[in-house]
Design a protein that fits this description.
The complex is a heterodimer. By secondary structure, chain A is an alpha+beta fold. Chain A is built from seven helices and ten strands. Chain A is globular and about 85 Å long. Chain B starts with 11 loop residues before the first helix and ends in a 7-residue tail after the last helix. Chain B has ten helices and two strands, in the order H-H-H-H-H-H-H-H-E-E-H-H. Classes of the chains: A alpha+beta, B mainly alpha.
Amino acid sequence: MNKQSNTYTIFYAIIMVVIVAAVLAVVAAWLKPIQQVNIDTEKKSAILGSVSLYNAEEASNDPAGKDAYVDKAYKEFIVDAFLVNSKGERVGDATAAFTVLGELKVAYAAEASKRELPVFISKDKAGKVNYIFPVYGKGLWGPVWGYIALGGDLNTISGVVLDHKGETPGLGAEITAPEFEGQYIGKKIFNNEEFVGVVVTKGAGSSEGNDHAVDAITGGTITCRGVQNMVVGCMSDYVPFIKKTQLK
Amino acid sequence: MSNKEKEPFFSAKNMKLLTSPFGANNPVTVQILGICSALAVTAKLKPALVMSLSVMVVCAFANLILSLMRNTIPSRIRIIVQLVVVAALVILVDQFLKAFVYDVSKQLSVFVGLIITNCIIMGRLEAFALNNKPWPSFLDGIGNGIGYGIILVVLGFFRELLGAGTIWGYKVIPEAVYDFGYENNGLMLLPPMALISVGIIIWIHRSRDKSLIEK
């Protein structure tokens, strides 16, 4: 057979592509459920992590496996989850809230007045209640997202978990470090009833004594600015709900 | 097939294929391939190591598969065939990482996909796998993967140490040194300094092995 002929070349290409496509499709379909469990586990552990109810070491040492551990903790501590609209009204149930988590980008892309955003309420063993708000924004190279937990007063931040798709390792990627996330704890998003959020300021120690600011990461300015826009922008969407709940 | 006697699996010739990329024929410092990814993922040691392993797996299996197919490939579309095989393997690696070591796959994020464009893999396919039998090709892939990995790990080690004062995420430079006025060199974490570091490694390599110096 002439291996250099057009017919041979074309058929070779077609058969090769069909085989490769079939292999990839089968593998993707086979691994999909396992990957989905990983993604759900990660979201649940991040939600729990924002209120310090997740211990990574304990989870990976659990005999039942990390997924089961996280699932159990999630069911135990997250007592309520729902969607809120721009007027602060409850519009969806827990399942809907968790589904929206997977497509936060779409949820935030909607017009401000039509946004329906998820809220999670946790209650730890001591009965302390926290409200957890998922947020989503832009970093330098790609999306950044996170969970901001407010204490029972819906003003003081009790914990933050941040994550990113592909920020520069060692610079912007440091937003996920406990040193950066920890700065948010105890900061306040309202200044005398008025929403201000938490901004970033340049230089180590520059936010000292400021209730509404944290230190930016040197060399990670654009990522930090993205985090600031995310924290201020996304949290402002929750203000109607927060005000309404505070009045209760 | 032309060999009359069966060659042992780890004959001297095969071992040379495996080990020569570690030094005299290193893909990064001698062949100057795969520089882009060597700069991109080496700011920290851990992603550098996982990236090296992924490249090694892809390089070895791409070499193996291409070598098995080598007598059937029409030469006019051989580059496309190579790309399809490499891309399929990379997607498989990515899917498996996502399913079984999710945390690592998150750390590598886009870089796994970029293995497709790593010149080392295409380079070895063109230069070796298309003309050699499966087993030597497989060894050649492993060898080049390790050769690439050595450079990445060395780079990752020094960049993380000097740039962030940590190794594998653990602080190694004591607080006292900072009190004395020492500061982490932020430039080490940026790509330009990585390029300069690669240059320094090449310099050291050539000064130790004079046969590499061009006339």
